Structures are given as C-alpha cells and as structure tokens.
Amino acid sequence: MDKVIDIEERIPSMRKKRRRKANKKFLFILTVFVCALLAILYFQSPLSRIGKISVNSTLLHDQAFYIGMSGLAPDEPLWDFNSSDVEKKLKKVEGVKAVSVSRKKFRDITIKITEWDTVAYLEDEGEFSLLLENGEVFPNAKLIPQEEAPVLKDFGDSTVRKRLTKQLLEIDDHVYQLISEIIFAGKKEDKDSIILYMDDGYEVRADLSTFAERMNYYPRVIAQLNGIEKGVIDMEVGVFFTPYSEVYGLKEEGEIVDKENN
C-alpha cells in the first residue's frame, strides 16, 4: 500500500525551496545591478581615462612629436588603448630603432624610444643631415654638429654611404673619435678613394673597402712617427707617410712606415 504524505507536512519544505530560489534570483539581479553601477562609475571616473604620457629623452625628435605620432592623448578612454598598436605606429617613424609602450600606475602611459645612433654628419652647402647607424639619412637643415662624429662631404651615393657606415661601425672608438672629416674622392680609376682629416693634424688617404681594418692601426702608425712633422698617411696600399712640406711642396715619394697591412 502506497504511503500517503500529508500536504501540510510538505508545505514548510516547499516554502524553503521557494525562498532559496527567490534569494538566488535576487542575488543575481543585485550582482548585475552592482556590476552595472560600478561600470558606469568607472567609465565616468578619471580611472577610465589616460593620465600622464611620458617619453624618454630623445635626439632626433622631441617628446611632443612622439606623443603626437602615438595617437594617444590625456583624458582619452583607456579601453581603446593597445600597446602593440602604439608600438607599430611609432616604429614607422623615421629614425626609430625600437619602441616599448607600457602602462604605469594603472592609467599612466610610458613610451620608451630607442633611436638609431648618429655615426656621421652629411654636409651640403653648409647644411647638415645625420647619417644613422642603419645607413639611412635623417635630414635636419637646422642641425649644427655637436657630437663627436665626423663630417662627410661628397657622399651623395646611398650605396657608398651604407658601405661607409658599415666601416665606421667597425672602427675602434678611440680612433673613430679622432676623425674630423671624411671626403669621398672616388674616380673611375680609383672609385673607392676617401680622404680623412684627423683631429691630431694628420691627413689619411684610404680605400673604402679596407678603411676600418687599416684605420685601427692608426695609433701604432702615429707612435712610429714619433712627433715629426705632420703629413699625409697613405693607407690605400700598405702604409706610407709623407710630410706636408713634400706633399704640397716638393711632392717627393713618401717613407714607408709600416708594411703589416700589405
């Protein structure tokens, strides 16, 4: 015989189930409402907008230029901020080698720019452009050379400039800092000839293809000259020295100083 359950006995348990179900529904609605309220408060508060935008010290462009190129601005919504997109934009800027964009203190943006270093200055009718370490030219007509980098003349060919850039990067720093000016003197019979004027008063004649290798012997050559009259050091084939009085006067054949580079 089936057991008969009194409906009055089940009413309390049914009420508890209904109450729990109603509580869950209420908690869900309350949670949605609170989340919505917090979202509204967040989007209306300064926390949802970009705060300070900072850029490290740079030479080729100023900080305001980079901030403008980034597309960012203070008080713009943070939800639209994407560091990768900003980095891609800035990497397209002329002279930029690398970019890192990050958020600091939740709403501040830090942009770190690494520019290509300057290896030389290109002079054209009294105006200067920068030759960067990637072989590209960065124009700046108002620039006056201030760094310890040589001034280049007659390097109008981009291929020749890139070859020179590679050579300059291979020269020892203490020798590189002594170079004041480099003139391209290439002709049909000697297409890679260059002339260097050094800060210590010497003139060097070299071949573009072996320029760096031979110039690294420069301190040794100067030591062998032992402070005699300044003159021309020819490093195109071997290493020869001729005093200025002979080069620009009697023009006699120079003395062989060093044959190690033959």
UniProtKB/TrEMBL annotation:
GO terms for cellular component: cell division site; plasma membrane. Its main location: membrane. It is found in: Cell membrane; Membrane. GO terms for biological process: FtsZ-dependent cytokinesis. The chain crosses the membrane at residues 26-43. It comes from the Bacteria. It is a single-pass type II membrane protein. Belongs to the FtsQ/DivIB family. DivIB subfamily. This is Cell division protein DivIB. It comes from Filibacter tadaridae. The lineage of its organism: Bacteria, Bacillati, Bacillota, Bacilli, Bacillales.
